[in-house]
Amino acid sequence: MNSFDQQLSEQIPALRRYARSLLHSGSQADDLVQDCLTRALERQHLWQAGTDLRAWLFTLMHNLFVNQLRRNARQPVAVTLVEDTPGDVVIGPEQVARNQQLHRQMARLPFPQREVLALVALEGFTYQQVAEILDIPIGTVMSRLNRARESMRQWLYSEPGSGLRRVK
C-alpha cells in the first residue's frame, strides 16, 4: 500500500462521522463516503503532497453532498424505515437515548449550521480549515457555529440563550 492509500484509509472513520452528521441514513452516509473515496482515488493526481489530505477529502465530500442535494431536489423523496446501526458497538440504554436526542436536535439545525458544527465539534477542524473546505469567509464560520451551539444548548439543556433582547 502506498503512502496516499495509507493516509486515505486513516481518514475513513472521520469521513464516516461527518457523512453521518450530514445524512439521516447510515446507508446514505456510507454511500457518500464511498463516492468521496472513489473520487479521491480517481483524482489522486490533483492532491499536492505535503498539503492537508484530510481537508482535501472533506472538501471533496462537501462538494459531493451539495451536488447530491441539488440532484435530489428534482427527485422524489425516499424514506428509510429502519436505521442502520453498527453491530459491534455495545452501549447502555441511557447513552442510546442521549445519542438519539443529540441526533434529533442536530437534524433540527439548518444545514449550514449543522455542517459547520459537525466539522468543528466532531472532526476538530480549525475555523480556517472549515472556511477553506466550505469556501466561505471565516466570520461566517464563526457566526454559524455560534448559532448552532446556542441552538443546541437551548434544545438539549433548556437553557435560555445569551442572545440579544428586543427593547421597546
Summarize the topology.
Elements lengths: L2 H8 L1 H11 L3 H17 L10 H20 L20 H16 L2 H12 L4 H8 L3 H20 L11
Helix pairs in contact: 2-3, 2-4, 2-6, 3-4, 4-7, 6-8, 7-8
Can you put this structure into words, describing what you see?
The protein is mainly alpha-helical and 168 residues long. It folds into 2 domains: 1-84, Rna Polymerase Sigma Factor, Chain: A (Orthogonal Bundle), CATH 1.10.1740.10; 91-161, Winged helix-like DNA-binding domain superfamily/Winged helix DNA-binding domain (Arc Repressor Mutant, subunit A, Orthogonal Bundle). 67% of the residues lie in helices and 0% in strands. It is built from 8 helices and no strands. Helix 3 packs across helix 4 and helix 7 (127-134) packs across helix 8. The chain is globular, with a radius of gyration of 18 Å. The N and C termini lie far apart (67 Å). The model is unreliable at 77-82 (pLDDT under 50).
